[in-house]
What we know:
By secondary structure, chain A is mostly helical. Chain A is built from one helix and no strands. Chain B is mainly α. In chain B, strand 3 and strand 4 form a beta hairpin.
Amino acid sequence: MTRPLVGLSALVLIAAILTLDLARAGAPDLFTAPPALAYGSGQAPSGAHCTAN
Amino acid sequence: MRLTRISLVLAVLVVLGFVLVMAGARSALLLAVGLGLGLVLEGLRFGFAGPWRMIVTDRDGRGFLAQLVAIGLVALVAFPLLAGSTELQAAHAPVGLGMILGAFVFGVAMQVVMGCGSGTLINAGSGNIIGLLALVGFIAGSFLGTYHLGWWTSLASAPVISLQGVAGPNAGLALTLVGLAAVAALIIARAAPGKRMPPARLWIAAGLVAALALANLVIAGQPWGVVYGLGLWGAKVAQAVGVDVGATAFWAAPSNALYLSQSILTDVTSLTNIGLLIGAFAVMRWRANPGAPAQALTLPAYGAVILAGIVLGYSARMAFGCNVGAFFSGISTGSLHGWVWLIAAFGGSLLGIRLRGVILRPAPVTAGVRA
C-alpha cells in the first residue's frame, strides 16, 4: 500500500468514528459551548486528561 | 502538485470551519493546535520514540535534547500560569506500582512499533501502515485499560506529588529546570561528538511544540494529552456495538460519563489527536514525493504490531499518560509522576529496542517482488 493510501485510510478511520459518534451522541449544543479560551474565563477546568483516574 | 496543495489547504479550512460551526470556537482552536503539532512533528521530524532509540543505538542525543528544551520552555511559562490561575489544571497523577509498570511496558511497546502516543498518530497520518495498525490497537488498548485502572491504582500508590506542591511555584520550577539540565548532561555525556548539538530544525521544532503546548494549556485549561481521547474513541465504538461501557467504574465517574455522552468534538484530547493526524497527512501529501511505503512485514509481524498497539494503549492508561500526557506535560507542569515515567519508560525502551528486530520480521522478497 502506498503512503497516501494508508494515510487516507487513517483519515477514513477517524471519519468513521466521528460519524458513528455524531449519530449516537448528536451534535454538540453550541449554546453551552465554553468560551474560546479557558484562561481568563473564570471557569474551573472541566476537560478530561490522560492523568484522570 | 499545485492542485493537490490547494486542495489540502481548502480541505483543512473546511474541517476547521465544520468544527467551528458544530462545536464552537474552543473546539476549532484546539483542532488548529493539533494541526499545528501535526505539521511540526511530521514536517520538522520532531519525535519521541526515535530519539530515545538514537541515543542508545547511535549515541545521537540531538533529538532527545530537543525534547528537553521544549519541556523546559513549557515549564518556564506553565508554572507561573498555573500558580496564578484557577482556570488551568496541571497534568498531575500519583506515582504507584501500576504506573511504573505501565510506563516500563509502554517504553518496550513504543520501540517495537517505533511510535509513542503522538508518534502513532503521526505515523498513521503520514501513511505508515505500522502506525495505522498500531493506532487501531492503541484505541482498543487504552479503552481496555480503563476497565482495570482501579485495580492497578489499588496496588501500592503514593499520593499525588507535585514539585510546586512540595517546594512552591518558583522553587518547583527551578527544580524542574535543574532536573532537565541533569538529564541533558547525561545525554551529552553519552552522545558521540558531533551528535550533541541539535540542528536548527530541531531548535525551531522545540520552540513551536512548546508554543503549541502552551496554547493547548491556555485554550483547553489543561496540558496537551493523547491517551484519554483514544480511550474515549474505543469506548464510543464499544458502546455502539452494545457494550455497557457506563457500568465500569472509570466511565461511571461523573466527568468521564459526561464525555461518554457528549460528542467527541467537545473532548480536548480527541480534537488535538484528530488535528495531529490530519496535520501529518497534510505534510505527507504536500511533499512532491510522499516517500516509499513502510517495509512489508510477515503476516504474524503485522499481528504483533496490532498487539503491541494494544499493549501501548493499555500501558499508557496504567501509567497515567504516554510520552505526551505523562512525560512532556507531566514534567512541564511539575508532576513527580512525569519524572518517574521517564525513568521507567526509558528502561522499557532499552528492552524494546532489542525486541523490535525479533518481533518485526520483514516479509521475504522473491523474484524482485516484495511479498
